[in-house]
Amino acid sequence: MESHLTCWRKGPFAALVIAAFLDSVFAYTDPVEVKALKSFHDKIGDPMNHLSNWKGDDPCGSQWNGVVCLPDDKDIKKQHVHELHLLNMNLTGTLAPDLSNLKKLYILDMMWNKISGSIPPEIGNLSNLYLLLLNGNNLSGTLPDSLGRLSNLNRI
């Protein structure tokens, strides 16, 4: 009789584990953020093919290289891009203003690439941004005034 009770107690736990697994399987990346990443990808060159797995419409579920995601605060099935780690990938081209649509972005690390042009002023709309790491590129121009609105920014 005691062994049946032990088995029954494991049942609800197992159901929760299965439910959590199914939620993660059916999770999706915020479509606005997918569009922003695709726009960014269209504006850069990737001669070493580091971003060759940036295909489809679910960067979080497909684990695109350099993309780190976290679940939404209110809808755990919805994922947001939290970090972009594209360090030393020999990337070329310019920064897409659409990156400003990654509203939950906390870290943007694109150090030691060959990105050129200026920092788009729209980057100043990333209110959660903590680290903006762009050194070691071929950027030109002045820092946009809009970066002054980033109260969480710790390092640039």
Pick out its properties.
156 residues, alpha/beta, five-stranded mixed sheet, four-stranded mixed sheet, 24% helix
Descriptive notes:
- The chain is α/β, with parallel strands linked by helices and 156 residues long.
- The strands form 2 sheets. Strands 1, 3, 4, 6 and 8 form a 5-stranded mixed beta sheet that branches.
- Strand 3 and strand 4 form a beta hairpin.
- About 10% of the residues have low confidence.
Summarize the structure.
The chain is of the alpha/beta class and 156 residues long.
Strand residues, percent = 15-25%
Low-confidence stretches: 4-8, 14-24
Query: Could you give a short account of the major beta sheet?
Result: 5 strands, mixed
Question: Strand tally, please?
Answer: 9
Q: Please tell me the overall pLDDT.
A: 88
Class from secondary-structure proportions:
alpha/beta
Q: Write down the oligomeric state.
A: single chain
**What is the first-to-last residue Cα distance?**
64 Å
Fraction in helix: 10-25%
* Tally of DSSP helical segments: 2
Element string (H = helix, E = strand): HEHEEEEEEEE
